[in-house]
Amino acid sequence: MSVATSSAQAPLEALSGGDALIGMAALGKTAAALALVIAIILLCTSLLKRWQHHRYDHGARLRIVGTTAVGNRERIVVVEIEDTWLVLGVSGGRISKLHERPAPTDRGSTPPSPPTRFSQRLANAIANSRGKGDSTSSDSQHTS
Q1: Beta strand ranges found along 28-71 (DSSP E)
Q2: Three-state SS for 75?
Q3: pLDDT band at 140, cuts 50/70/90?
Q4: At 108, is the secondary structure helix, strand, or coil?
Q5: Helix and strand numbers, DSSP H then E, in the chain
Q6: Which pairing describes strands 75-81 and 62-69: parallel, antiparallel, or unpaired?
Q7: pLDDT one-digit tens code per residue, 60-87
Q8: SS3 at position 80
Q9: Global pTM exceeds 0.85
Q10: How many angstroms separate the CA atoms of 86 and 80, rounded?
Q11: Residues ≥6 apart with Cβ < 8 Å to 95
């Protein structure tokens, strides 16, 4: 009986090795399909970003000069349209024109620098305080 049992196990072992190979092929096909779907999604998003950027830049003569919050949902916004500045009040569901004036002619050609981040201001403050501390300690060393 042992001879018959061992001869029956040999084809089963051959099949299990083939099944493992088939399983790996299916897993590879699934991974390749997933990678293809992700690549298509990334390609579509990059194309949409490019398309939307070009769509809004053509003929856009609107520029936000400044903004400030005056309440929880209320803001005052200064908008430049061609050579006119509009002061707008913006609230939850409403925009009101508060004032209109011609844009200044002596404004600089470079846009104002963006406000510095808190981390940069903190690093500068720490560097300045260390610099002041070093100068006072060096002065005390020179007087001794």
Answers
A1: 62-69
A2: strand
A3: very low
A4: coil
A5: 2, 4
A6: antiparallel
A7: 678 888 889 888 889 999 998 888 899 9
A8: strand
A9: no
A10: 6
A11: 88, 89
The identity of residue 140, as a single letter, is: S
> Is the alpha carbon torsion for 126, 132, 135, 136 positive or negative?
negative
For residue 59, give both structure tokens: 């003929």
Q: What is the pLDDT of residues 10-35, one digit of tens each?
A: 554 555 667 778 888 889 999 999 99
What does the block give as tokens for 135? 């100068």
* Site of tokens 């430049």: 80
Cα separation values, 67 from 87, 89, 91, Å: 9, 10, 13
Which of these, 64, 74, 69, 67, lies nearest to 96 by C-alpha position?
74
Strand order of the sheet with strand 75-81? Answer: 62-69, 75-81, 84-90, 95-102
CA 136 to chain CA mean position, Å: 43
Amino acid present at 119:
S
